[in-house]
Amino acid sequence: MNEDELLNALPRSIKYDIFLFRYNNTIRSSQFFRNSLNLFDQTIYYSFCKYYQTEIYLENDSIITSGQKMNDIYLILDGEVEVIQNESWLMETQKLRPGDYFGGLLQNKIQSQDLKAM
């Protein structure tokens, strides 16, 4: 039984509490869970917990490739992600760290950068 199977077997309220306990500092510092007043929003957090799935990437694993359709939001809980903007006239990289997120709410959004685990 993997972590997701174990957590999915638990009542939702316990699942939320375990997730929040495990990643408390990262979640509370992430802008993803902030409301318009920049306060931690429990409603956004609980909505996220209803649908989240854990994915693990090893160093140099490709997460998203430029041109790929994207339907998900990724929240970084551990490690770093390198964002590579590779235009014909510009090569730019950026690092994302725990608490950062990428992706979007738009269905079938075309990704314009490569993202890989560091």
Task: Describe what this molecule looks like in 3D.
β4 and β5 (90-96) form a beta hairpin. The protein folds into 2 domains: 1-54, no CATH class; 57-118, Jelly Rolls (Sandwich), CATH 2.60.120.10. It is globular. It is α+β, with helices and mostly antiparallel strands and 118 residues long. The mean pLDDT is 80. It has helices spanning 3-9, 12-22, 24-29, 42-51; strands at residues 62-64, 69-70, 73-75, 81-87, 90-96, 101-103, 109-110, 114-117. The strands form 3 sheets. A 4-stranded antiparallel sheet has the order 1-8-4-5, with no helix packed on it. Strands 2-7 form a two-stranded antiparallel sheet. Strands 3-6 form a two-stranded antiparallel sheet.
Question: Helical percent range?
Answer: 25-40%
Shape descriptor:
globular
Q: Helix/strand-derived class?
A: alpha+beta
Would you state the CATH class of the largest domain?
Mainly Beta
Q: How would you write the strand order of the largest sheet?
A: 1-8-4-5
| CATH fold description of the largest domain | Jelly Rolls
Features:
118 residues; alpha+beta; Jelly Rolls; two-stranded antiparallel sheet
Question: Could you give a quick summary of the protein structure above?
Answer:
The chain is of the alpha+beta class and 118 residues long. Helices cover 29% and strands 26% of the residues. It contains 4 helices and 8 strands, in the order ααααββββββββ.
